[in-house]
Amino acid sequence: xxxxxxxxxxxxxxxxxxxxxxxxxxxxxxxxxxxxxxxxxxxxxxxxxxxxxxxxxxxxxxxxxxxxxxxxxxxxxxxxxxxxxxxxxxxxxxxxxxxxxxxxxxxxxxxxxxxxxxxxxxxxxxxxxxxxxxxxxxxxxxxxxxxxxxxxxxxxxxxxxxxxxxxxxxxxxxxxxxxxxxxxxxxxxxxxxxxxxxxxxxxxxxxxxxxxxxxxxxxxxxxxxxxxxxxxxxxxxxxxxxxxxxxxxxxxxxxxxxxxxxxxxxxxxxxxxxxxxxxxxxxxxxxxxxxxxxxxxxxxxxxxxxxxxxxxxxxxxxxxxxxxxxxxxxxxxxxxxxxxxxxxxxxxxxxxxxxxxxxxxxxxxxxxxxxxxxxxxxxxxxxxxxxxxxxxxxxxxxxxxxxxxxxxxxxxxxxxxxxxxxxxxxxxxxxxxxxxxxxxxxxxxxxxxxxxxxxxxxxxxxxxxxxxxxxxxxxxxxxxxxxxxxxxxxxxxxxxxxxxxxxxxxxxxxxxxxxx
Length: 516
Known about the structure:
Layout: H1 2-6, H2 11-19, H3 35-58, H4 62-79, H5 85-100, H6 104-125, H7 130-135, H8 146-154, H9 159-194, H10 198-213, H11 224-232, H12 234-250, H13 256-272, H14 278-298, H15 309-330, H16 333-340, H17 344-348, H18 354-357, H19 360-373, H20 392-396, H21 416-419, H22 442-449, H23 453-456, H24 474-479
């Protein structure tokens, strides 16, 4: 400390020497499995952080230098061959300790931003699996077929299979690191909430989300850091996150692709967040529908997926959100009244034809529920079953934003236990139509829709028993992610609707745009 304070030329050397202890020597990693090793680690790092604080007390500019040195060392450390998950976790643990310690006011933004960037890097790197699966039509397969497909595929001897086998080792490595670091971050957020600092930390996370995560095309898991922070404080953080996404969407100066991502995040978040109230969901729907209504009033001409892509993104977000939340909204008197007053039918029946441009399975499920709830009267639409309509791939663009559902189930093994208690799975959703009539004939379907709206509105209660999920090896678990949603029916949907579809219990993860 005396050397660091005595002359500026020694400051960086002293700080670098201290922060090098953030890196765990390879010959010490095995000792961390023993009580002695953990005790030794805690003793050393406690002294390191104490020394850094003492230097900051006498050299006020030192925290800024600490940020630069730690950031540079992290970049080098994670790129080193053989960097273990445990070693990387200890490095990040020290970064979060800096954020929560005496230097937090100065280093908070930089440390949290750097941690999120690291998570995002690992997240995106896992996207190397995407093209192999997509080439083999994984998105057209039923969930129960995925395991058999993976086994056959990896053993088929083709060039793709050999590439997948090689990449599988790398995928597991990234998944293990990402999963462990996500858990560490969740635990840090819990400590922030317990210490009354979550609102301060959330401001930084929100800014980092907007600048880093929302602008990234292949994020699948890192957005759950925001989800969990919101779950810890729904009234403040949860509502603020939703409000910010709405503002990004409605602000005309933002890039169209950013606005489309924002509305997809908004719909996925409110669909899945068990902690968000019906009133917030209803108010958000009111703003989205209002924007769509104003768009339709000024729009002339027929279907143009490229020019109207922002409108289609908003319509799909509305329908997707209502697929999950319509029943709970109809069971809340105020939300039901608000929902009944929305001009949904006038938007959907416009010549711009959002029902023909959005993902068919979302449209079908929405129309089934909206018919049963008395919100719209379905006309006859002819769909080709699948993940895309004739127009959706056009407005979705090369990023496939029409397939973006960022908060589909998180299948990282350890991270899931933090998310699961706050998460709405599709199997937990009660629809507005009578599911017992699902296998009925067309005549029964007509009769069911003739029932008065009030009789179709049943008491809503989220199932207490959460959906069973099997977390096999990471590669198989990741492969089990499915597109939202899958409809295996090959019939036309119309006023005399044939059959209610079942959306899969696990819906495709964020691929912004691509998925595993």
